[in-house]
Amino acid sequence: MFFAPLPEPDEHDHGSYEAPEWLQPPWGVLPGLVPVTRVLARSPHAAVVLRAVEAYPQGVRFALRSLITRDGLDRRAWRQLVEDVMGHGVDASPSDVLRLGVSYADGTRVVAGSVWPMPEGTPDAPVLTLQGGGGGGSGDHYEVSNDAWLWPFPPPGPLTLHFSWTALGIPEGSIELDASAFLAARADAQTLWP
């Protein structure tokens, strides 16, 4: 016999990991939905859009989509654009990637960034975490989800979402949203399993 028998799986419970609420939306909760469809920015070959805001009891997730179109780009330029939108650009500098931030009317600002190493305990200030997602398309177009989790739940009133993505030709810009609508949608969130 070429292969030795494999050991049986360990039947012991080694515990499970549950991400802290400030890092990502809770599992098993159906969020309330704020139907927002806004084009944040467009360039000749790319667009970044806000498709919705999902309101959870602990925070909100911005459902962002990035779309690119080949529209005459040669094979090499198209491949580079796909790598950039997927976040796999070989030569990408930190300023080339999708950058997101949020500011509140009281002057509070939070920028999406790395949360590693994980802080001890619960952060004292708001946290904005990019929730990378999948994508797909064809030889002529591509779409990627780029969701962002904002914790804790923002206060009612104006909230400004800031963005830039230089690799896609998207300069710094912002849109203002009414976080009071998030509060109304939060009442619609449903916990599927306690």
Q: What would you say this structure looks like, in words?
A:
The protein is mainly beta and 194 residues long. It has helices at residues 75-86, 179-186, and strands spanning 29-30, 32-34, 38-42, 46-55, 60-69, 99-104, 109-111, 127-137, 141-151, 158-165, 170-178, 190-191. The strands form three sheets. Strands 2, 3, 4, 5, 8 and 9 form a six-stranded antiparallel beta sheet that branches. It has two helices and twelve strands, in the order βββββαββββββαβ. The mean pLDDT is 87. The chain has a domain at 29-90 and 125-155 and 180-191.
Quick structural summary:
The chain is mostly beta strands and 194 residues long. It has helices spanning 75-86, 179-186, and strands spanning 29-30, 32-34, 38-42, 46-55, 60-69, 99-104, 109-111, 127-137, 141-151, 158-165, 170-178, 190-191. A hairpin with a 4-residue loop joins strand 10 (158-165) and strand 11.
